[in-house]
Amino acid sequence: MHKSGSSQALGPGGLDISQSFFKPIHGASPLPTTTRTTKISVIGVGNVGMAIAQTILTQDLADEIALVDVNPDKLRGEMLDLQHAAAFLPRTTITSSTDYSNTVGSDLVIVTAGARQIPGESRLNLLQRNLALFSKIIPPLSAGSPEAILMIVSNPVDVLTYVAWKLSGLPANRVIGSGTNLDSSRFRFLIADHLDVNAQDVQAYIMGEHGDSSVALWSSISVGGVPILSFLERNQIAYEKQTLEKIHKEVIQGAYEVIGLKGYTSWAIGYSVANLARTILRDQHKVHPVTVLAKGLYGIHGGDVFLSLPTQLGRNGVLGVTNLHLSEEESQQLQKSAMTILEVQSQLGI
């Protein structure tokens, strides 16, 4: 485990003089032997992992951030780069190691590590390589932090969240994926842009797979508490379904466009995951569309499938799934999305 190169031992011969700076007041009780701190571990220090770590750090969501990666030089470089900003940031201990023991005692473990697709490689082969990778990553993480919430960000996030759940031995409420939380943010932004309102006033969800079979819940969209589609129908205001489908397509293509322009996505997913971390660690009971075990919900049957549903999150992970009313078309699309994921899962052999 690596810590900062600086030390409290600044006196002659390495003498610890830190106690000389502050004197206890008269009658003060001794420091408690145990203190409750919040620890977040981030597995993988690529563009996504570091965007998440940086956002969590600036938002003061943890007392300790533990970074783990297989590349020791990049890992130490990223740790030092963050540590050198200490004077401008909340006081947070930042550690790094190639060893998973660095994550022991975590409250939240965020996994961003994953194999990248090789040109011409099939999706199934990529998944098999990620399964092999997760087989090495997940067991030591859950063993070292058996009370932690495990959040998967690596793609394909739905299938890999299922894989992580199977490998971790953790209860389903404590294994989630980042899912369509970011997709839904893009959705809200595009609707707000069309209506010229603030995106924070738009309530809208993308459900299902984080991918091409995702489902846009048009029937549940509201702006300032006003259900949009029923408002338009009640006031006999015409709208074209093609316009709605175009917005949904823009949501799906959003990440591809960013990747095409800058080579990767990072900042939006960083804010999205920090948003989830805040809700979980501060027990805010907010609703987010994240990847959860969906078996038996919304008519989804046939296996232990993980996909995104509007979920209430708190300190114990999944507190419950929102019982939204879906149109018949939306319900069918969601079940089709589940079958798409189940078909891929069935080929993994776990």
Describe the structure.
The protein has helices at residues 47-58, 72-83, 123-144, 157-168, 181-195, 228-234, 241-262, 267-281, 328-345, and strands at 39-43, 64-68, 93-97, 108-111, 149-152, 175-177, 202-203, 206-207, 215-216, 222-223, 226-227, 287-293, 306-314, 317-321. By secondary structure, it is an alpha/beta fold. It is globular, with a radius of gyration of 22 Å.
Strand segment tally = 14
Percent strand equals 15-25%
Please report the distance between the alpha carbons of the first and last residues. Answer: 33 Å
Oligomer: single chain
Kindly provide the radius of gyration, computed on alpha-carbon positions and rounded to a whole number of angstroms.
22 Å
- Secondary-structure element string: EHEHEEHEHEHEEEEEHHHEEEH
Short description:
The protein has 350 residues and is α/β, with parallel strands linked by helices. It contains nine helices and 14 strands. The longest helix has 22 residues, at 123-144.
